[in-house]
Write a structure and sequence with these properties.
The chain has 245 residues and is an alpha/beta fold. The protein folds into 2 domains: 7-119, 3-Layer(aba) Sandwich (Alpha/beta knot), CATH 3.40.1280; 134-242, Trp Operon Repressor, Chain A. 37% of the residues lie in helices and 16% in strands. The chain contains 10 helices and 10 strands. The chain has helices at 33-43, 62-68, 86-92, 108-119, 129-133, 160-163, 167-185, 188-192, 197-207, 233-242, and strands at residues 19-21, 29-31, 49-59, 74-78, 83-84, 95-98, 152-153, 156-157, 209-211, 226-228. The chain has a 3-stranded mixed beta sheet with strand order 1-2-5. It has a 3-stranded parallel beta sheet with strand order 4-3-6, covered by helices on one side. The longest helix is centred in the last third of the chain and has 19 residues, at 167-185. Residues 210-245 have low confidence and may be disordered.
């Protein structure tokens, strides 16, 4: 169940104010402690978890979303203005969470994002739960490419392995493509996540190669070229040519 609460309903100020100027000066307003503390204590249930959406928080990840899904209640505080009085954070907030290294006007959109990603771990929210098990980041990698009908579209073909019916080879292909995509788009994930020794070795093998951009018009399912990192003179001429690909 999702409930939205108006913070002004918990203010004891005659004008229902919820913010004030910051001690020490500076621009912007700060959320006052009284309305927030009163609201949190009225809303929070035993076992509930209070989260402040803030650019100062830990980054929201797939793993963090899964952890949050285990709580029987989440109380989300949408930060705004210059922030929240630190005394509220010290006494009432269990953790601060950020959706990325950037600043938004308020925490409403981050709260919506958190709700969306946490909800996917709740049985019945996703129509086919198997699809959630194969999402990006589940195994520490980005998700492999997907294809559907027709088998050929504007000259671009679906990889033969996906039409082969060989499920073992399909699993291997998907794993390989996930590694390649992760190396290309999020290489730092390869150093943080390995399922087992074999996958770590494969990750290192792919990391040791340089993935080149596809020439314009090349089918997306084709790997154009990979060149090992090598300073050997025998490869220097070819390496120089590859820089313009």
């Amino acid at each position: 169940m999702l409930n939205v609460h108006n913070l002004r309903d918990y203010s004891t100020d005659k004008n229902r104010c919820v913010d004030d100027v910051a001690y020490g000066g500076g621009g912007g307003m700060v959320f006052s402690p009284q309305p927030l503390v009163t609201a949190i204590r009225a809303i929070r249930k035993p076992g509930g978890h209070v989260v402040l959406l803030s650019p100062s928080g830990v980054k929201l990840t797939h793993k963090k979303a899964e952890e949050l899904s285990r709580f029987n209640q989440l109380v989300l505080i949408c930060g705004r203005y210059e922030g929240v009085d630190q005394r509220v954070i010290d006494s009432e907030v269990d953790e601060e969470i950020s959706i990325g290294d950037f600043v938004l006007t308020g925490g409403e959109i981050p709260a919506m994002i958190l709700i969306e990603t946490v909800s996917r771990f709740i049985p019945g929210v996703v129509g086919n739960q198997d699809s959630a098990k194969n999402d990006s980041f589940v195994n520490g990698l980005l998700e492999y490419p997907h294809y559907t009908r027709p088998a050929v579209f504007e000259g671009a073909k679906v990889p033969d392995v996906l039409l082969s019916g060989d499920h073992k080879e399909i699993v291997n292909w998907r794993r390989e493509e996930a590694l390649k995509k992760t190396m290309r788009n999020r290489p730092e994930l390869l150093t943080r996540h390995c399922e087992d020794a074999r996958h770590c070795e494969r990750s290192e093998a792919i990391s040791s190669q340089r993935l080149l951009r596809r020439p314009f018009g090349s089918p997306r399912n084709d790997v154009v070229a990979t060149l090992p990192r090598n300073d050997d003179n025998r490869h220097s001429e070819r390496s120089e040519e590859s820089k313009d690909v």
